[in-house]
Amino acid sequence: MNAAEFREFLDDISTCFITGEFDLWASRILLPFSMVTQQGPVFMTTLEELRENFDLYLQACTVMRLDEIYRRPISLEDCRDGTFIGTYETELLSHGHRATEPFTSSALIHATDGGYKMSSIMNARGHHPWTGTSPAREGKQ
Fold first, then answer.
1. What is the distance between the terminal CA atoms of the chain, rounded to a whole angstrom?
2. How far is the C-alpha of 90 from the C-alpha of 71, rounded, in Å?
């Protein structure tokens, strides 16, 4: 993965939540998939669990009136085993204004026959404050 591919990856995992394109999100995910959020870990092992989680994020986007998600690459580390650790800053925007403070996350990205896919995000911004769900009700822990 090079810098341009990382940028494309970040654009895909941002745009899909604004456009509601679950297939684009799913094309960048390697199951099982895990997210570590401030509210707790979330594990998804099936496409159905991934879809349910995606839909909750769409609800949060609606509540916050987001019209742009921008992820700025910070670093990309080649782990030399077909995986990469990509670190990026996320800004959630509504009409050009920040809906929340920016936050930094890291993803474990794998080179696969189907392209680059992530299996985990550390410090993901959970949808929980906006949807009222808790990580304990999602997926497996």
1. 30
2. 4
Count of C-beta atoms within a 10 Å radius of residue 81: 8
Secondary structure string (H, E, C) spanning the chain: CCHHHHHHHHHHHHHHHHHCCHHHHHHCEEEEEEEEECCEEEEECCHHHHHHHHHHHHHHHHHHCCCEEEEEEEEEEECCCCEEEEEEEEEEEECCEECCCCEEEEEEEEEECCEEEEEEEEEECCCHHHHCCCHHHCCEC
pLDDT in tens, 111-131: 999 999 999 999 865 544 544
CB 71 within 8 A of CB 90: yes
Distance from C-alpha of 59 to C-alpha of 6, rounded to nearest angstrom:
27
Q: What is the pLDDT of residues 91-106, one digit of tens each?
A: 999 998 998 889 899 9
Residue type, 24: L
pLDDT bin (cut points 50, 70, 90) of residue 139 is very low
Residue type, 30: L
Distance CA 21, CA 26 (A): 9
pTM: 0.84
